[in-house]
Amino acid sequence: MKRIVLVVALIVIAGIAGIVRSHSKTGDFDRLVSRNSSEQVRDEIRQTYQLAPGASVELSNINGAVRIETSDTGTADVLIERTGASQQALSRRKITIEADANSLRLRGEKGDVGFFERLFGSTPSEQITLKLPRQISLHTKGVNGSVIVGDLDGSVDVRGVNGRVQIAGTTGGAEFKGINGNISVGLKQLNNGVNLGGINGNIELQLGQGINADFDVHGINGSVASDLSDVMIDKNKRGNYSGRIGSGGSLIQAKGINGNIRITRSAMAPITADSAQN
Questions:
Q1: Can you give the pLDDT at residue 10?
Q2: CA proximity to 106, closest of 164, 147, 135, 74
Q3: Considering the chain, what percentage of its residues have pLDDT values greater than 70?
């Protein structure tokens, strides 16, 4: 008798799970939903916004890779591609976009789905592609995938990334915290220094011509090395390094690194007043 009751209960639960449906709100986005050959459902959102020079771009809670291309433009082109096992799977998450002239924010959130779909359903993956002005500051937090960024005339703040991080160039301060993957960053200028912490991967710092900085590394499970003639490195004790780049200046500091740090020369041309006006 107990076995029969259990079977009936399971059938009822399955029926309820099949009936409960919820639809996420999409707003006024240009949207395309399709099914590919592997029977996965694909959802695509495209939007364009105007951004002023120096605008802030923020991405948070993204379940997938982020790619950002930059150029001398005043617009931000946003492409969001989401893939899931079913339309119900896509409904488990949504991406909200908030934008004005001075900021662009993309945030992943839980969708408006029923209890059983939330408990047992599969999670969709997301891929974000942005085409942005070069003059922005970038902030990312909670990305389950790689973060690949073009050349920026601004600062970067990258936290909580499960994947490779690559920044072609930055002129402002640079913060990297809680990264599970290799990091490569081009430093064109060092206005506010560089701070790295909790990195599980190798780090490559690509210096522009004329960069002057001091660096201080504590608690590294690896080495600090450079083949540049203007970089001096001292190993104080196991896991601790200090040194100077050029005549010294802004501080590059790293703490809790499980990997190697290598200081190299960037292939980019140095930034001068003449080049900035062209």
A1: 46
A2: 147
A3: 78
Cα–Cα nearest to 91, from 148, 52, 33: 33
Residue 157 in contact with residue 57, Cβ under 8 Å? no
What is the per-residue pLDDT for 269?
41
The upper half-sphere exposure of residue 84, i.e. CA atoms within 13 Å in the direction of its Cβ, equals: 19
- Cβ-contact 149, 174 below 8 angstroms: no
Structural tokens at position 22: 């919820």
Q: What angle do CA 14, 17, 23 make, to 5 degrees?
A: 160
Decide the pairing of beta strands 125-133 and 147-151.
Answer: unpaired
DSSP 189-201: --SS-EEEEEE-S
**What six digits make up the tokens of 261?**
């740090």
Q: Let me know how many helices (H) and strands (E) the chain has, helices first.
A: 4, 22
Exposure letters 119-129 (e unless 16+ CB within 10 A, then b): eebeebbbbbb
Chain centroid to CA 264: how far?
A: 23
